[in-house]
Amino acid sequence: MRFDLIRDEEGLLALGPEWEALERRSPAHLFQSHRLLADWYLCAGKAGGAVPAVVVAREGDELRAVFPGCVITRSGVRILTWLGGFFIVDYGDVLFDREAPGTVEAFLAEALLLVRREVGFHVAYFHNMRHDALAYPYFSRELRFFRGDVAPYVELTGDFEGYLDSLKRFRKKQKSDTLRQIKRLSELGELKFSVVPGEAPEAPGVLQAFVEQKRWRFHSSGVHGVLFKPGYEEFYREELRRNPSLHLCCLTLNGEIIATHLGYLYKNRLYFVMPTYDHRFGKYSPGRVLTYYLMRACFEEGVEIFDFCIGPEEYKYEWTDRDVPITSFVSDDLPGRLFIALKKGKIRLDALLNRIKGVHP
User: Fold this and answer.
1) What CATH number did the domain enclosing 246 receive?
2) Which pLDDT tens digit goes with each residue over 44-53?
């Protein structure tokens, strides 16, 4: 195969049609989709100083593989990581056509050599790799383990009522508690769940409510969330306008938005990315109620997987007892070991500061 390195915005955007065609021929997740990654680069990536380092491989005129990388500089250290940066890529991987000649491992070895030779970097940091990722065998062998995580999920088989009843295996009162909260909210007025298409007139208002609810939660928790980082609020607004996979929904009470979720429906998989709710209604569990209605809608629409994405948050395990392991890797050399030490030191410092402020990590 013929290898090429894409290092600029023009080249990244020009890849769109053939990259999207390759998505359909490979087991890609949302986080390898061109639309998502191009929007991220235009809004947040450039604002954060990211430089594309995308390697493509072609057989004749046919695109067969994509390594979606970028280089981000922090304190003078050039870090090679996934295109999409450190905050939106819940599952890192490459794109590789099932009909491509050669192996994923050979493609990755050549791609990384090309990036090192033509772009240069001090540390390779590839985070959030599912153990069923195409690139996982190569990185687990060639790089150093940094940390592990999990991603809970639900396979949507059977019907919704049967699924709810199955939760009794590990959460006896999940169904009854949720229905009780729905009843309590309904006694206050008209309770309505809505999926809001990006082109709907009300979509910008729902997104604004989502942003405001998220900002309040970030402020109250003391956590410097992604919406405070340069370009990220613009990124999500751009996604609403441009990405047909974006999935926005809300729960309203008497017309007032009390809970929202911004996620994606991609390849018949619902990615539950960012839920939030109005804190004034917290005693009614509006986030749980919204998840109930969203899960029901997914059953009705024939969605195959409800993916809670990365993180072992307790509320996710109210809905499932299944998850997949995830691992992050760094380059297995001195810079990589120093990177691990610095990252773990920062994690411990953040935890200490949160305890001092009285906020649980």
Assistant:
1) 3.40.630.30
2) 999 999 999 9
User: How, if at all, do strands 123-130 and 77-82 pair?
Assistant: parallel
**Same domain (yes/no): 161, 145:** no
Is residue 272 within 8 Å of residue 263, measured between CB atoms? Answer: yes
Q: Are 91 and 46 in contact (CB under 8 A)?
A: no
Q: How many domains does the chain have?
A: 2
- State pTM to two decimals: 0.93
Pair (107, 190) in one structural domain: no
Radius of gyration in angstroms for the set of CA atoms belonging to the chain, rounded to a whole number: 21
d(CA 93, CA 272): 19
219 and 118 within one domain: no
Helix (H, G, I), strand (E, B) or coil at 248: strand
* Domain region containing 270: 157-303
Per-residue model confidence as pLDDT tens digits over 138-183: 999 999 999 999 999 999 999 999 999 999 998 999 999 999 999 9
Short-list 182, 171, 160, 191, CA closest to 315:
171
Start-end of H helices in 69-173: 104-118, 136-142, 160-166
Residues 6+ positions from 35 with CB-CB distance below 8 Å: 16, 20, 242, 243, 244, 245
- The answer to the question of residue 311 being in a domain is no
Cβ-proximal residues to 342 (8 Å cutoff; 6+ apart), any chain: none
